[in-house]
Specification:
The chain has 185 residues and is α/β, with parallel strands linked by helices. It has three helices and nine strands, in the order E-H-E-H-E-E-E-H-E-E-E-E. The strands form two sheets. Strands 4-3-2-5-6-7 form a six-stranded mixed β-sheet, sandwiched between helices. Strands 1-9-8 form a three-stranded antiparallel β-sheet. Bound molecules: inosinic acid and magnesium ion.
Length: 185
């Protein structure tokens, strides 16, 4: 075990994780509240929850089970050419939803909003598909997003400006399976 590792968990394989920022119970409670908010926000019409892979996969799975109104689910896959810890803003869609977007309430579900570059690009792409409404739901918001051109309508938690992993979030594809969100720094 590395001496700087303060969180002890066999999932970590001895790698340094400084502290748990949001534990599983805290996340579950907040995701339940978000499900209620989202259920109430759409009194009518078709709602499509569109998860941005891969980071949103656990959040989306938990969130949609807390939404008590008719719903469809699909995914988008975007690739961004940045290094492991920052996004470049050069975002490409590598999987396009098969579900029709036109005329639907689209809820773009993101794991975390950092610079906002990914969201900006995706919102432009999705807006062009003529949805009835288009909103963002993010589990975490770093509020470092000076470039973000869109409001994030549903936010789980304000996040510290640290690199976070777990509950879907990765560092070099590791740590996505942690049931909590932890800081690597
Ligand atoms: P943005 O384009 O800078 O807003 O970055 C958004 C994307 O970068 C997210 O969807 C994540 O995949 C990744 N990202 C940003 N911050 C973190 C973090 O703290 N941990 C893990 N991934 C992050
Ligand atoms: Mg990532």
């Amino acid at each position: 075990m590395n001496a700087s590792t303060s969180v002890v968990d066999p999932r970590l394989d001895g790698r340094a994780v400084k502290r748990i920022v949001f534990d599983a119970q805290t996340i579950a409670r907040r995701v339940g509240e978000m499900g209620n908010e989202i259920s109430r926000a759409y009194p009518d019409g078709h709602v499509l929850a569109l998860g941005l892979l891969k980071g949103s996969f656990i959040f989306l799975g938990d969130l949609v089970r807390q939404i008590t109104r008719p719903l469809q689910v699909d995914f988008i896959v975007a690739s961004s050419y940045g290094d492991a810890m920052t996004s470049s803003g050069d975002v490409r869609l590598v999987y396009d939803p098969e579900t029709e977007l036109e005329g639907k309430h689209i809820l773009l579900v993101e794991d975390i909003v950092d610079s906002g570059k990914t969201i900006n690009r995706l919102m432009d792409l999705l807006g062009a598909r003529r949805p009835r409404s288009l909103d963002i739901c993010a589990l975490l918001h770093k509020h470092a997003a000076t470039e973000l051109r869109f409001p994030v309508k549903f936010v789980g938690f304000d996040a510290p400006n640290e690199f976070l992993v777990g509950y879907g979030l990765d560092h070099a594809e590791n740590f996505r399976h942690l049931p909590y969100i932890a800081s690597l720094q």
